[in-house]
Amino acid sequence: MNGANIAIFLNRSANAMPTAITVIEDKVFWAESNKSDISILFVTKNEPNEVSVLRKNTPKVMEMFVYDPKSQRGKKSDKNVK
Q: At 64, phi and psi to the nearest 5?
């Protein structure tokens, strides 16, 4: 791998600093720090120019995990969980 096939997927402000990122299906989610504000944003891979804000003024985010409950398998360990 020499990076010859690299492509810019999303070009954000030079002041913004991503602190966490994750991908699920066709969506890319990330936390972005811009001065004192941290926001959680997402885009779809097919529409990278349409950035959506999920949450603003989020405490410091350093890790991000996204899951789809429909894709989880196994038995429920607690009968009180619905």
A: -145, 130
